[in-house]
């Protein structure tokens, strides 16, 4: 593992600090962003997102595809829905899930591109 270089200077660059401080999002926004990335931090949720790239699917289909219980899939879908990453629509007794918008695919694709570098 490559060792990290440590700065040995004691000079504080106030101009850089002040400029950066003014450009940082609020703590509330950063907390929301952190929560979003936590949602992406679960392998099962990533698989569900990947499946929904291909087709709108119901819980039964996702459970069969991932070899999981419907209850476990429903739980993960609830997390994804709370994070505004998936939407659902009812067709009779069946509830279908899909990605909320193109942002989800772009976030995923950027992460995948980084991993594959």
Describe the secondary-structure layout.
Elements (H helix, E strand, L loop, with lengths): L13 H10 L3 H13 L3 H12 L2 E2 H8 L3 H13 L3 E6 L2 E6 L2 H15 L1
Antiparallel strand pairs: 1-3, 2-3
InterPro entries: ArsR-like_HTH (IPR011991), ArsR_HTH (IPR018334), HTH_ArsR_DNA-bd_dom (IPR001845), Metal_resp_trans_reg (IPR051011), WH-like_DNA-bd_sf (IPR036388), WH_DNA-bd_sf (IPR036390)
Organism: Clostridium cadaveris
Keywords: Cadmium resistance, DNA-binding, Transcription, Transcription regulation
Q: What is the subunit organization of this protein? A: single chain
Task: Classify the secondary structure makeup into a structural class.
Answer: mainly alpha
Q: Report the principal-axis shape.
A: elongated
Within the largest sheet, what's the order of strands?
1-3-2
How much β-strand is present in the residues? 5-15%
Q: What's the name of the CATH homologous superfamily?
A: Winged helix-like DNA-binding domain superfamily/Winged helix DNA-binding domain
Question: What is the element string, with H for helices and E for strands?
Answer: HHHEHHEEH
The span between the termini is 18 Å
> How many helix segments?
6
What is Rg?
20 Å
CATH names the topology as Arc Repressor Mutant, subunit A
Can you tell me the residue ranges where pLDDT is under 50 for at least 5 consecutive residues?
none
Number of domains: 1
CATH class: Mainly Alpha
Percent of residues in helical segments? 55-70%
Number of strands: 3
Report the average pLDDT across residues: 93
């Amino acid at each position: 593992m490559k060792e990290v270089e440590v700065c040995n200077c004691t000079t504080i660059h106030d101009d850089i600090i002040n400029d950066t401080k003014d450009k940082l999002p609020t703590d509330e926004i950063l907390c929301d962003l952190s929560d979003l990335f936590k949602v992406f931090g679960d392998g099962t949720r990533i698989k569900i997102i990947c499946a929904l790239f291909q087709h709108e699917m119901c819980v039964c289909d996702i459970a069969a595809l991932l070899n999981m219980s419907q209850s476990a899939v429903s739980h993960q879908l609830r997390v994804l829905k709370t994070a505004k990453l998936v939407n659902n629509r009812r067709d009779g007794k069946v509830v279908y899930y899909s990605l909320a918008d193109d942002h989800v695919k772009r976030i995923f694709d950027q992460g995948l591109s980084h991993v594959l570098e």
